[in-house]
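Sequence in, structure out.
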Amino acid sequence: MANVKIPIYYDYASSLSYVAKRVMQQLDGQLEIDLVWKGVQIARRHKGWKNGEMIGDEVKGKIVRISRDTGVPVRIPAKWLDSSYALEGAEFAKDHNLFPEYHEAVFVAAFEESKDIGELTTLLDIAEQVGLSVVALESALQSENLTKRVDDTEQEAATFGVVGYPTFMLGEFPLIGVQPAETMRLLIQRYVEKARQQVGH
């Protein structure tokens, strides 16, 4: 049987989206699923988010707690990151069949190397590192096309009532946030079995 597709609404500015990526890597090969990563800018959907402002202690405390619970280390940025270029770059990387490599490199830069992915030069360096054409990407970022694609995904997220990041869409049910690997495995496995039963009817 074909794998069950699970959309994940994420943002490169969200440390919990990074944690979710690492947790799902721990489960690689254990679930019959295909993850479909859909980028939405958290700053546009979350009122407490201000690009460039310092991240407060309360938020840092939450990230530290989730990092500890999941066993995924995170270098928390000092400021809220602006992910608009990075998300548009992800659409460009999809067009050039380099999304998995780009996706990994952006998360590593933001949450392992403490780089500011909001800086265009940083992003273009990442693109070059994974084999994307820097000239073509820079030109694509100037066009409205990539912006529109991210906006469309944002509209889609809004129709599902997505308010937190990451959000795993298990059918109609939004699973917001991330749990330790074994909990995620059980939740997703249960969904996969249900989805298979419905297909079987």
